[in-house]
């Protein structure tokens, strides 16, 4: 059995040295560590010291990391990724009054690359596409209006005519998300080695990024979103302890 497998479900993809470094820094606030501590921490996950140092150099050259006086920190591009990850783990919500946030795409003549970039951006905002050019979600998130959409989309507040829970089930694969979340909770409970746990929790973060964060009344029974977030938050505390200890084992 390799570092990315357990005794249930499909194998998770193993983490490279680059992925281990990113996982550690994305979970660290502020996201900067001395070289010595980074190398020690990465070694705990089965990556050799020379491999870790080579990965750090390559990542700095590629613009993933910025060299500081004594170590490395995430680049500005990856700081945005850390903010998205933090929001996925601790989404800011408000009481839902039945309104839906709706974006209607009004721009025309956009090329395939621009359309794909727009779709990715709207999906990252936890919007779902009802039909071509119409994106919406319940208005239960605390966030500023999406940026960069002036002249591209019209932002509306609507109340669809069909039942809200029925519409949510059409827009998002809620049962599939729940099943995967339960599988991930089982994986992390079985994982013992540091590399196995890091691999499993990296998958947890990816899955949380796809959580639509719907109002409770629109979710299936026993929705595991909060349980998955709690598990990851506890793992973050564990990792923060390792960082504070300078990479020593706990």
TrEMBL record:
GO biological process entries: DNA-templated transcription
Protein name: PaaX domain-containing protein, C-domain protein
Domain Transcriptional repressor PaaX-like central Cas2-like: 94-142
Pfam families: PaaX (PF07848), PaaX_C (PF08223), PaaX_M (PF20803)
Domain of life of the native organism: Bacteria
Domain Transcriptional repressor PaaX-like C-terminal, chain residue ranges per copy: 198-238
Positions in coiled-coil regions: none
Domain Transcriptional repressor PaaX-like N-terminal: 16-77
